[in-house]
Design a protein that fits this description.
Blueprint lengths: L1 E11 L2 E7 L4 E2 L2 E3 L6 H13 L4 E15 L4 E13 L13 E8 H7 L3 H15 L4
Parallel strand pairs: 1-6
Antiparallel strand pairs: 1-2, 1-4, 2-3, 2-7, 5-6
Length: 137
């Protein structure tokens, strides 16, 4: 089974938006691409849905691929996630409990790299920081 998702590394000054799942793990906002939707549209929509904030689109970072076992469908799944830099000044978070999130907040980049539970998301943050270092603001 193949899945395609998109997400955002949302910057607020020198901090990054993270979402905490009910199990305590921290992740970046992302979700499935709807039919007819561009990856950038998905990424912006998912940031809004999962955190409650509005973000401005930056540039494409990269994609990551991984496999996992989908327990709902009882099948192995191959997932590709497309990532974008984003920017927001919103401070009112409304984490989407239906998706298993109980907290959203901006975290300093060094802490974000320690908090994240997925190594591929840590890699994406590092790539996003490199892009910003090349002049994107």
């Amino acid at each position: 089974m193949k899945e395609i998702s998109a997400g955002g590394v949302v910057f607020n000054s020198k901090k990054i938006l993270l979402l905490r799942k009910f199990n305590g793990g921290w992740v970046l906002p992302k979700g499935h691409v709807k039919k007819g939707e561009k990856y950038s549209e998905t990424a912006l929509r998912e940031v809004k849905e999962e955190s409650g904030i509005n973000a401005k689109l930056g540039q494409y970072i990269d994609s990551i691929e991984y496999q996992y076992f989908n327990f709902r469908k009882m099948k192995k799944s191959h997932k590709t996630v497309h990532w974008f830099t984003m920017y927001s000044t919103d401070m009112e978070f409304i984490p989407l409990e239906e998706e298993g999130f109980n907290e959203a907040r901006y975290v300093e980049t060094e802490k974000a790299l320690k908090f994240l539970i997925h190594n591929n998301e840590k890699t994406i943050i590092k790539k996003a920081i490199e892009l910003i270092g090349e002049g994107e603001q």
